[in-house]
Amino acid sequence: MELLSYLLRNIKLNSAECDAIGRAFSKQIFAKGTVLAHPDNHHQNVYFIEKGLLRAFYNLDGKDITHYFFDENNFLISFESVFFDRPHPYGKQVLEEACLRAIPYSKLDELCNSIPAFKNFRLQVSLQVISMLSEKTLALKFQTAEQRYKNMLDKFPGILLRASLGHIASYLGITQQTLSVIRACR
């Protein structure tokens, strides 16, 4: 879904506000495999995914681990870099051709200061991200691999067709062999 259509489904904006937002966000197309930011980056852009699938990832002892998947109608931001001026531990990679809308955080902040409804919406999106990450932490601590797999399929329908099994297994916190066993039992 296009950014403005998404926003208008969630907040009231007049035509001048829509124009300002449309001008501020640049439209960018990225090929599958593109790394938008490497782990430990100071990335300052905010992205809205109009089309495509991305992942946040990190490296642990030389191993690539998928932290989270982001599909259409989601925002991505490097929280640590933007809010705390420290390296963001997660990289961002495009898993299938993607159409993104991008804006530097400083310009987003200016927009939010000039458009009150957009400022409130930014807070709602931030709280949704915090909730999402909290759910992921709880799942890794208290759910079985099978439960995490089922929840992933509910949250990301079609993910098995869009992401590699290696990325899916690392997201679930299991090996590819365990993933294969879980899939065979379903």
UniProtKB/TrEMBL annotation:
Extent of the signal sequence: none
Chain ranges passing through the membrane: none
Entry-linked Gene3D superfamilies: Jelly Rolls
SUPFAM superfamilies linked to this entry: cAMP-binding domain-like
Lineage top rank: taxon: Bacteria
Name the UniProt record assigns to this protein: Fumarate/nitrate reduction transcriptional regulator
